[in-house]
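quick one
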Amino acid sequence: MNIDLEIFSPIHQVTNPLFDVHGVKVYLKRDDLIHPMISGNKWRKLKYLLKAAQHQHKNHLVTFGGAYSNHLLATAAAAASFGFKATGIVRGEEVDNNTLFLCKLHGMQLQFTDRESYRDKPALFTKYFGADENAFFIDEGGSSAEGVQGCSELVDELTDTYDHIFCACGTGTTAAGIINGLTKHQYQTKFNAVPVFKNGGFIKDEIDKFLIPPVNYDLHIDYHFGGYGKATDELVIFVKQFVAATGIVIEPVYTGKMMYALYDLIGKGYFKPGSKILAIHSGGIWGLLGMKDRF
Ligand SMILES: *Cc1c(COP(=O)(O)O)cnc(C)c1O
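structure w/ pyridoxal-5'-phosphate:
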């Protein structure tokens, strides 16, 4: 089977009186529209991993994630779409939630594991699937050179140039891919990474190890709102207002933090008047279902 999705990721302008005051234009690349389940950057990260699995004649994808992982769901849906079996090794005691329901709906087998064992993913893979010659290891979040390669293709799709690109960061794979893509096209665009967890400075090492050649970019580490999966009321209110004002759904775990950072920096006069800014909507809107009680 040919492993590919037709990419539908248009660029939509977002307007706000704040942008006029500061003389900036803001656009959103709608990677959330690529697929309802294999959403956004998760498809870009999986594409070459699935091709590698196919090339090695391995038809069983084994991957890792927390109980709310967008990557687990994307892998489950991609596996179902392209004829693979899938196992998700889930961090923590057995639970049930909307994300895991959707994983199971797509036929993914779930294997819960304690937090201590979860740290050593290759050991877990060997323990459970060492004897399965069809098993193919995919790291948590799809972090890999293949993932970086897939994410760099986002830049190939651009038909316009921008002064800044903004992107939420978990593993940094998406950021590294986009930066490599900008380098390849010799764009002068400044990349802005917004880590979604506390002490996000370490993400620099994760991004830099994939960069060919090394490049300078900006890291905005003060928009974690308490840490991964955490949100303040201020962030939740921002997300609600953004969705109601634009009709574009974002959520508090990734894209909400990234957009909050962008709006905050615009308000602080961070950008030169005349700047064109492209924010990446990296998908993941099902994350909202795990945070309903905050809204
Ligand atoms: C997984 C995810 C990210 C983080 O991507 P990395 O490549 O791990 O940095 C960003 N946004 C959304 C919506 C995600 O689901």
